[in-house]
Here is the input.
Amino acid sequence: MKVGKSYKRNDIDEQYDAIVIGSGIGGLSTAALLSKEGKKVLVLEKHYVAGGFTHVFKRNDYEWDVGVHYIGEVNKPHAILTRIFNDISDGALKWEDMGDVYDRIIFGDDEYKFVKGLGEFSDKLKEYFPGEENAIDEYIRMVKEATKATRSFFTEKALPPVVASLTGSFMKGKFLKYSDKTTLEVLQGLTQNEKLIAVLTGQYGDYGLPPAQSSFAMHAMVVKHYFNGGAYPVGGSQMIAETIWPVIQKGGGEVYVNAGVEEIIVKGGKAVGVRMEDGNEIFAPIVVSNAGVVNTYGSLLNEEVAKKYGVRENLKKVTPSVAHVCLYIGLKESGENLKTGKANLWIYPHYNHDKAVNDYLADPQNNPFPVVYVSFPSAKDPDWDNRYPGKSTVEAISLAPYEWFAEWEDTRWKKRGEDYDKLKEEYCQRMLEVIYKYVPQLKGKIDYYELSSPLSTKNFTSYEKGEIYGLDHTPDRFRQKFLRPRTPIKNLYLTGQDVVTAGVGGALFGGILAASAILNKNVIADVLKRTAPEHA
Ligand SMILES: Cc1cc2nc3c(=O)[nH]c(=O)nc-3n(C[C@H](O)[C@H](O)[C@H](O)COP(=O)(O)OP(=O)(O)OC[C@H]3O[C@@H](n4cnc5c(N)ncnc54)[C@H](O)[C@@H]3O)c2cc1C
Here is the structure.
């Protein structure tokens, strides 16, 4: 089902209570939660498909997700994240567990499995690293403590400014103790075993920064997120938008695609509506931006407004996250025959992630990919065979800075020229070589492949530098007070991954915090009430 109506300026003649710019999970969740409170919400999405990074694209009778490979904490019915998704989809979104092993961390010929269940995870690590039992126990304790501290850190973000200024330091203190340190600093405080450190940070691609650069708090949140294994949306990641859309419609709202917003209209110190790319103006008392803080402050507010509120100064305090290349592969062979398994592969050239990244960035031709992440989306989706019988898909990702592709930024998608195609083909072949080494059964079976570059990411999601996780998750990022749903402009709010963290779960919490700030109430308490077992 295609989510959303196609925007035509004469479509939108009704009055809405709120406008949401962007239909990522942050935008959709805020819209759905406001709808549940009786608000009529208009979601405006620039792309021709709704969902932001949760959308899928189709080519040559294959389908691939673009930004959802696995989600944690949704494979237990009463887990908070499961209940939030149940609430905003009216119970329509279903999840498939990935099984006992969710990630396989590979260095050359060595492989380490990340297994479901905290006890099992810990035992497995101790089996791999005898003599490191104390370090592993302490690591798990710190991961748990850091993530526990996120609760009050997140809550503080939704508080009205006066209350936040009185209680903020106290509420954030414990979290900042962890977020101020890099992952490497914390791990080197626990062990000198470089292999153990490399394995524990084997999922660093989930937040985009290697151990010497990432905040330990972000590392801890991601690791803990998957302690109970990974899950995948039944029917593919597009089901996320597909199941939330009716909830927005039920409240009288609508999602429009092909609906690019040019500017947020600010009058008398208040956001009052938006000017569309076609010049049409739409007004509503609340405007929420899911377009990312860099787009919102950097281009959706005009120069004069941005200057008046000093918001662009804040952008200098943060950096855009990494960009990527993704190889999308289609195979005319069923998952049953290919037997790839569901677990993701994280393939590394050696045990020093920071060195691998730095070497590759300095000289990409003569250094191996610092990571190749391989995902098997069709194998994770129990509904795949009903939609695409006898076929399978694979995706492989590596880092690639936007600057390497910048010379083609003014060319058009699919028409960027021979040099661009040649560069992309080189990436494809290099990535295939790595993939064949670890998944040899794919050799000779590939029917279709296509590589996305940071320019594709920019084209389809509007992140200026093709960034995949919004802002970098460095220690500094978590110190930024301006990353919160309330903006200095009255009635303008931020939602999505820049409010707290990247990840579907992180952007969803951004959505909840935005709804809480708009409604001036604890929305999560309402969600938990609505989804209490007696209501199920
Ligand atoms: C390759 C990749 C793999 C990932 N894997 C995982 C994973 O396995 N698990 C996980 O939890 N997370 C994963 N993530 C991260 C996760 O997908 C994102 O953090 C999250 O989906 C971001 O949601 P969001 O709501 O903040 O914004 P987005 O999904 O980025 O949505 C923002 C939307 O705003 C729209 N927009 C921008 N400007 C305008 C405008 N002017 N007018 C109208 N619309 C506009 C964009 O088109 C876009 O649709 C992955 C991301 C990527 C890129």
About this structure: Residues 320-461 form a domain with the Polyamine Oxidase; Chain A, domain 2 fold (CATH 3.90.660). The radius of gyration is 22 Å. Residues 21-27, 44-47, 52-54, 67-71, 260-261, 290-291, 295, 324, 326, 397, 461-462, 468-469, 496-497, 502-505, 507 surround flavin-adenine dinucleotide (CB under 6 Å).
